[in-house]
Amino acid sequence: MPTTESDAPPATALPVPTRILAYRGRAPEAAERALAVEMPVNLVYGSVPYAVMMTTPADLADFAYGFSLTEGIVEAAAEIRGVAVETAEDGLRLLVDLAPGRLREHLARKRAISGRTGCGVCGIEDLAGLPRAAGASAPALDLSLAAVERALAALGDAQALNRETRAVHAAAWADRDGTLVAVREDVGRHNALDKLIGALMRSGRDPATGFAVITSRCSFEMVEKAARLGAAAIVAISAPTSLALERARAHGMTLCAIARSDTLTVFCGAERLVD
Q: Are 199 and 60 in contact (CB under 8 A)?
């Protein structure tokens, strides 16, 4: 029996306590450690399976919205009429109910993905199929160094699952002043960002009023996903790739990376940073 997006059982996402033997030097010690849940989730549109993603099964409605946008299946939250979660033998099914017109368009261009953890390009048949958001992402955002510092300082405490498991990525959204307003976690960095994007879509938050912060490296897929949302700036803990920088420039985004409490490297958009 499917469950709706509001009453999906959260227990499926709880860290799994596991007995371990920890060595400190040569002295073993029996202990317990929490492991992050990784589970296959099959996204289904109009009863037709589309992708299997390895995810942490929390915030699945957010994931459905964000994934649908960044995959180009929808252009706006209103094109999704509902999301339901269905338990399967080996994982979960995420049943996404699209508006009729959008469903017809989707089925006409359907591709199948059998992804690893958050894989962004598996199942693409040629280079022309690589994700590419259209045009500039959003109006330029004046981003203050103080706001970036404030967001980075708050991010550690906001990662509840990672504190327990040390095994998941986070994607956060900060207001213009650096206040974190949404944080999503997942074993996959792409999934964490999709969940964040879905949360912002569902809340109706204007992407021109803040910036994204991610705990992972900044690959081109991460830039493209942020651009699909309409984000004007992205701050990454690790370095970007060359293609990520190329895409960020094409979208007119500010890209900051190798971000720490006391250091920050600006790869593009430096003219939009203020003290």
A: no
